[in-house]
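Subject: Predicted fold for Thioredoxin family protein, 126 residues

User T.R. writes:
Posting the sequence so we have a shared reference for the thread.
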Amino acid sequence: MSFFDKIFGGKEEAPEQKTFWKKIESEEDLQKAIESSSDHKIAIFKHSTSCFISKTVLRNFEKEVAGLEHEAELYYLDLLAHRPLSNKIAEDLGVTHQSPQLIVIENGKAVNNASHQSISADQLSS
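User M.O. replies:
I've generated the structure tokens; pasting them so everyone works from the same file.
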């Protein structure tokens, strides 16, 4: 990225996808994720790729969990690409849609959720 692009907001580089994320891109992916919550805690991060706040929260959360032992299996949902899946999550788990949002699931039920600046690794252990 050139100096002027950095100053004036030129082409945006694709964000680096962290290796701990498992993507949810279909109803089958979602079903498998929720089924796996009967064996261990999972968390779904719902992210709007066009929202600056969502990008900032995602980046901060990734930094926070990068060096930790994960107490939950982490899933990532791109809201813009998969909005119907986000709606299904809200409906099936009874959690009002937010963006960004972290939903922690155990035994097929949402046990914790947070949105915006309230998202932190603390949600994974409570």
